[in-house]
Structure formats: structure tokens, C-alpha cells
Design goal:
By secondary structure, the protein is an alpha+beta fold. It has two domains: 250 residues, Aminopeptidase, CATH 3.40.630; 127 residues, Alpha-Beta Plaits (2-Layer Sandwich). It has nine helices and 18 strands. It has a six-stranded mixed β-sheet with strand order 1-2-6-3-7-17, sandwiched between helices. A four-stranded antiparallel β-sheet has the order 11-13-9-14, with helices on one face. A three-stranded antiparallel β-sheet has the order 4-5-18. Helix 4 crosses helix 8 and helix 5 runs antiparallel to helix 6.
Length: 390
Amino acid sequence: MPAPVPSRREILARLVGFPTVSAASNLDLVAWVRDLLESHGVATTTVPDPGGDKAGLVATVGPADRPGAVLSAHTDVVPVEGQPWTSDPFVLTERAGRLYGRGTTDMKGFVACALHAALRAAAQPLASPLHLALSWDEEIGCVGVRTLLPAVNALPAAPAFCIVGEPTAMTVVTGHKGKVAARAVCTGRDGHSALAPMALNAIHLASDLVTALRARQAAIAAGGPFDPGYAVPYTTLHAGRIEGGVALNIVPNRCSVDFEIRNLAADDPAAILDGLRADAARIVAAEAARIPEAAIAIAVTNAYPGLDTDPASPTVTLVRALAGTGPGPGKVAYGTEAGLYVETLGLPTVVCGPGDMAQGHRPDEFVAESELAACDAMLDRLVGRLAAGL
């Protein structure tokens, strides 16, 4: 006698109960998901993180040697510290048709729907397979999925397409910007502040670099390229963190600037970085004769590609029909793992899932029950297509 299929609500409650913030392990969640799927005859592969304290999972329902569909999601969530929650963030709570808890929108609501769909699909014959791909450390820059993708690539047959279930209010998203995170380390010469002109203040070097960064941002904002599909229709540059100095009476010899580029598909972030490195060289050259150790070194700390799926592609047409929500906005401001599925595997990919990112990362994060029901309906239609062989 097969195990009874838990309700989607029960699955979501268990998922929310695992406090899988990116700084913590997700192994308990992955073990629970693996046991749940395998108790219904679903084949799973656990993909360990090289550090050993996290993992992802790839699962398949149906004939793995046929092209099928991938449902992709991440299992990590952002922290809750310092946020004024009105209920326990790791206990699923319902109020007025909304389900509250950390990750309900981003993106355990979709994970619950995908797991529920897989369990129900396992009870019927499929002509084409349904794959689940659950990653980790998405919230810190789409890190874990890079280790997971080889397991997807190792499937006996390449999937036909992928749906990344980030919250889009169940509209089909075909594009988002890419991101490069970088750090500039500025080196000067320390000294007593009473003799500051005889030293070289690294914070001043950093300030000059930020000024150059802002000038490049202004030029892009004025000259493009532009994509009207985005709320901010051009590539953006942003300095998010500066660290330097020890004491007010010491001229600092080191200062770091963390900055990011969120680029349109039409913009090459490498070219923008080259421009900033040229700015850095110019800033240093003005000081190098007097202070030979002066330097600004820029290094990329993380990057992921954007998504730019053709809105007229067969995958977009199919997923829009499955979702039943019409064209939708098409593009979103936030990044996802979708671009890596395209870049690494060449897999046609769209983003579509329950909830609204405006509710993500906030205190009292919630997803509406109606959004989850709409996602269930989309996945029911998908399973029907897989049963018939796509």
C-alpha cells in the first residue's frame, strides 16, 4: 500500500519549519524531501555541496530516457533577524487567505506545489518525465545551482524545457538582468593625520573610484542601451559597501568598495569592468610617482547571467498556456537561476511561480492561497501534457 499523499498545505508547513537561511545547513530539509519522494517511488539523487553542510536534489518521475520538463527552485531563505514579525516566521500561519512564514513566497510555496505535483504524478503513467531540481545558496548569488547543474546535465535524456518557480504572480517571465558583484581594494600609505598630505588616504582613492563609477552610471543612463521591458530600462552600477580606516588620527592605507553591475542582455559587463579598471589606473597614476605602492585592484566576487528568452519561442507559448495568465510583464528586476540553465545547459527556460516578490524578504512574508491554487492548476496541466508525451 503506497504512503498517503500529504496535502500541499502540509508539505508547505514542513518546508517552512526548516530554517534554511543561507548561513545555515539545509540537509534536514533535503533529507525530508528525499524520504517523502522515495516513499512514493520517485527516484532521487542527492547532490552534496563541496563544504558538506548543504545539498541539493534532483528527482525524476516517469521515463528518464525521454525529454521532459524541469521544475527548478532553491531551498534557502533570507534571514529574519531584526524584522518585526507578528508570528513565528518558521511556523506556517494562515490569516485571511494568506499563508505567512519565511520563504512562503520566495520560494517554498512553489517547492510545495512542485512536490505535491510530483507525488500525484507518481501515481500515474507518464510518457515524458517530470524532473525536480532543488538547489541551495541562491540568495547569496546563485551559488549552489552551479554544483547542481551537472546532475541535471547527466539525466539520460536532455529535458525539453525548465520552469524556475520564482514568484511572478503566475505570469511567464522571459527576461531579467545579469549581475556582477565586485570588490575594489584601494591601497595607499598610512601616516599620522597631522601629516596627512605626506601619506595617501585609501578612503580618498575609494571616493575617487566611486565618483568614476557614478560618472559611468550617468553615461549609461543617458546613452543606453535601453530595454523598456524593465522598470529601470538600462544597466545599473551601484556601490553598496565601503570599509576602511582604523582611527580618526591615522591616515588609512586600505579601503575596499563592494559594488555591483546589473546589466541588460545588450550590455557586456566585462567591458564595463574594463572601463572601471581604466578609471582606477588613471586615479592611481596621479599618485604613483609620489607613493609607488598606490594601487586599486578590482576583482569579481560573484556573477550570474541574465535571462533573455525569446517571447515567441515554443517554450514560452507552452508555459503561458499551462499558466493560463496571458503575456504578463515579461521581465523582472530581480535575478534568478534561470540564466544559468540557459548558459550552462542550453535549456529553454522561463520563470513562473506563485506569489509576488514584493512580499519576499520582508517581515510577515506571505503567499496567497489563491496563488498556490493557480500554481497547482498549472502543474496539473503540465502533468497532463507529460502523461500524453508533451
